[in-house]
Amino acid sequence: MIPVVVRNVVTEVLGVVRIVLGSEDGSALPDFDAGAHIDLHLPSGLIRQYSLCRLQAEPQYYEIAVLKDPQSRGGSAEVHRLSVGDSLTISEPKNHFPLMRGDRHSVLIAGGIGVTPLLPMAQTLQKTERSFEFHYCAKSPETAAFSSALEKSSFADKMHFHFSQVAGSGRMDVVHVLSCHSNDSELYVCGPANFINDILMQAKMLGWPEERVHREFFAAPDLAVAAIENSAFKVKIHSTGEVFEVGSDQSIFEVLEDNGVFLAVSCESGVCGTCQTGVISGVPDHRDVFLTDKEHAQGKFVMPCCSRSKSAILELDL
Questions:
Q1: CB 270 within 8 A of CB 221
Q2: pLDDT per position as a tens digit, 288-298
Q3: Is the pLDDT of residue 124 over 70?
Q4: Does pTM top 0.90 for this prediction?
Q5: Among candidates 267, 229, 264, which has minimal Cα distance to 248?
Q6: Which CATH number fits domain 2-90: 1.25.40.10, 2.40.37.10, 1.20.1250.20, 2.40.30.10?
Q7: Fewer CB in 10 Å around end: N or C, the chain?
Q8: Better-predicted residue by pLDDT, 249 or 222
Q9: DSSP code per residue over 107-138
């Protein structure tokens, strides 16, 4: 864990604050690549993941931007109460959403606060003189964090703003944007879960190969999970042979925790990938949005915080 201090708090737009975190002793923080995030350990004990929203201008600082979510489970609301001088701890940067190597054109699509991991991507692509375009979807400029800065950025000519509540702008024509580059580009999308799923669906229909479609969810989609009837099953620990019953109203993680089997868990909704665990045998019932469709089909990993089992026993590589 890395101790940091809140060095600045800036309101970007209504409901979005940018937090500047500085190392406690002024030393350099670990380097990171575009698309990376950190685990932020809040004073209450909550742990939340936030994208690093700007490449480091000075090595001792990180920046994150956080939307105060009306449906917040407490994390974003607590971030919005932080003040300059508050002490926190963070993890080293992790990256499940990196820029791909190579010279393919990049299509960046942000929905609202999903702009945060795409900002360092745009900075990196511009710095390395790689071809890209950046589409930013929001209700209006007043709700689009960083929009004024992006209009003046070194890559302003690559920016395309789509404001659904502004006359003459309107929603992005997804089919047009995606059909222009389905054969020669990498697609990166981040934003609300349902926004991402709409983009992914259109990309699939237009023939984008899954390996060239990259996404990062901040929250799970609004699925009718409550309507799914859960069945009990057993989970087996490969290293010890122990077998535990997972009730219809329990998660794998809860059962493991109750029986003294440690598993790092953060989001508890299958978004962040923290609890990703190998599967030795059995068929997972995937409920996460972290793994791709191909990875779901392969069944080599499972997210115990939210997923279940289609087989009577699911043996985990623990």
A1: no
A2: 888 888 889 99
A3: yes
A4: no
A5: 229
A6: 2.40.30.10
A7: N
A8: 249
A9: EEEEEGGGHHHHHHHHHHHHHTT--EEEEEEE
